[in-house]
Amino acid sequence: MVPKDAQRPDPIRISAQVSTHVAPLPYNLIYLALFSLPGSCTGPGHMSTTENLIQRATASTPLALAPLNATSLRDQAYTLIKAAIADTDIYNPSQELRLDERQLITALGVSRTPIREALSLLEQEGFVRTIPRRGIYIVRKSKQQIIEMIQVWAALESMAARLATLHAPDSEIAKLRHLFDEFQSSPPNEHLDEYSDANIAFHTEVIRLGGSQTIIDTTRNLLLHVRAVRRATISQSDRAARSIIDHLKIIEALEKRDTELAERLTRQHTLDLAAHVDRYGDFLG
Q: Which structural domains are found in the chain, ordered by start?
């Protein structure tokens, strides 16, 4: 929902700079340059290696040269803007959602074209939308859309947990416990920001341990909104304390290679979030 009084708000801050380095020279150009140095001729009356190569190329087909990659700036801008959106508390009612194109140009140090191309890609993916005569805004999902996204996440992450019990190395599963080391002696409610980060890391790591690239790819775009909702709700109804208990039970099931239990606990843990949003998520609209 776009605030009616949003005229010239501050944009999302993006501190990273897009790299504008020149792409490496193609191998064939380096080859030509090397052999055009003095002394590269084979002897009096002989053509240089450079001349010989050029003559053969002219006689047959042109050198296989491709245009410099002009889309890399767009791709870098896309990645950085998307990451900045992901790090923004977009479901905080006071969070400004408008993106200022001029500020993005200044922050990323590139021209208008790659910025507009990046924003166009983000709009196609449903992360931003253009409102005529007002600007470009980050998209907030409705309460029902969020619930459905969480339900899809529950199905995918529970399958990833099942696969992890079958394929993930013990050493990788063991790393999950270390995500919560600092909260063993101090309740997560006292460190909500840090616990929120550990919470997100846990769920994305379970996805990774499943080893399914299809699941990883499918959850990538869901993550932006699911992560934002987890952050927005982690302080409600003592969810942080209950969350860490659930996580440790899931880890134990993974360590024991209990396929059915790991899948069931992971699915129920995320469905509990969907139920919480259904009950308390009126702020989502």
A: 27-54 (no CATH), 72-138 (1.10.10.10), 143-284 (1.20.120.530)
